Amino acid sequence: MALPPRLTALVDSTRAPVAHMTTRRSLENLVAETESGDGQLKRAVGATQLTALGIGGTIGTGIFVVIGEGVGKAGPAVVLSFALAAVACMFSALSYAELASSIPVSGSAYTYSYATLGELVAWIIGWDLILEYGVSVAGIAVGWGGNWNEFLDSTFGWQMPDAIAKSPEDGGILNLPAVFIVLAITLVLVLGVRESARVNLVMVGIKLAILVFFIIVAFANFKSGNLHPFAPAGRDGVVGAASLIFFAFIGFDAISTGSEEARNPKRDLPIAILASLAIVTVFYVLVSLGAVGLASADQLSGSDAPLAAALDDGAGITWAASLLSFGALVAITSVCLVILFGQTRIFYSMCRDGLLPKGLARISPRFGTPALLTVMLGLLVAILAALVPLSEIVKLVNIGTLFAFVLVNTGVIILKYKQPDFPRAYRVPLNPLLPLLGIGFAIYLMTTLEAQTWIRFIVWLIVGIVIYAAYGYRHSRLRSEPERAAGPIIE
User: Fold this and answer.
1) For 172-185, how does the pLDDT look when each residue is reduced to its tens digit (9 = 90+)?
2) Looking at the domain assignment, is residue 277 inside a domain?
3) Could you list the residue range(s) of the whole structural domain that residue 114 is in?
4) CATH number of the domain encompassing residue 321
5) Phi and psi dihedrals of 318, rounded to 5?
6) What predicted TM-score, i.e. pTM, was given to this entire model?
7) Distance between CA 316 and CA 320 in Å, rounded?
8) Residues in the chain with pLDDT < 70?
9) Total structural domains in the chain?
10) Closest listed residue to residue 390, CA positions, set 181, 176, 60, 138
């Protein structure tokens, strides 16, 4: 039975916003937009620089600190925990590789969700990534400040006064070293992606050289007796440590945020994503094996600087603290650079799509970067790092990353069935089995997080939905340029 005209109009007016929110960006338009040449990001980096970005964004305080925490849970079997965490990341890495090479557009999981799951889901993951990357950079910068003081103390026997080296929560006035490193990295990012990639490549070379030195010394002084008992807590200890260690692998996904600046994205992006994860895994396994062979589990788990403690106790290298403090300093700097780079590119993509103010997406004709946006985000992160206590909020980084992994794996499955003929330079093998495994690992690890972390995450998403309803929905380019839509996902 036909509805009265007024009631039909009311139903249609209710359906329209829902249809718009489930509308996808056209894959063809997404790719074509980046090739127009007018006011776009410069394609300036190759596979080597992209791989270095992945390594730079991954190897940080995790390898220098988290080994001790992992050993406390799993004993010498922490080596297996690193391998298990790598496998958990591998499934998501395969999905990132397919989407990054097929949709070589800045924005990472935000853009992929826009093309596969629709505008509302894209906004949610973009809003999630803003929190993940922004809080992550601030937390990393605070860690840089602490390691800077440790380096000064171990090398010169002097530290900066607490008033200018710690946040108010920790008894200081402001964390000046954290502000300095954020502003310095912001300047490098403004100058250009090529310059940023070169700086990161140098830092990656330095920290890998220090880790190679550790591995050589460790295996030259290896004590097999330290491996017994190998797994004192059994399987539960190995899995528990893997849940903790998983977050030492986060960072390879930042490569995809630079898709639009890759010279040959269809070839270079899959190589960079998979190669960086493989290289990081090899280093993590070798370093962890060397550490448990150099020192006992008790020595490692009881130290704030487990690698330095292993060199000191196991090899008698007393100057190890200075070397490892310097290595940690360089490692954290490169992580901060890569993650802040990813933050600016995600924000840029959301501004370009009209979900946030478009004026912020302007590209500097001199530097070929979103300079205004980069400076704005750099200042906000610097203020956060200087003043705000981050001990609890940083946990949001974990849930945000895992949520992105779920959506990226889901996007690969949807593309397989929705657009099977869309050209792909790389395809995930055994799709949908491997993406489903990636989703399963991510959801399992999300269930291990604290209830307070979930509450904060949900509150942040609610705030984001309010902003989308008040601004993003009305200003989206899909409202003013409907030809960019590919139609609702559910027809």
Assistant:
1) 788 888 889 999 99
2) yes
3) 42-488
4) 1.20.1740.10
5) -75, -25
6) 0.82
7) 9
8) 1-22, 25, 27, 30-40, 61, 65, 169-170, 247, 302, 304, 388-396, 480-491
9) 1
10) 138
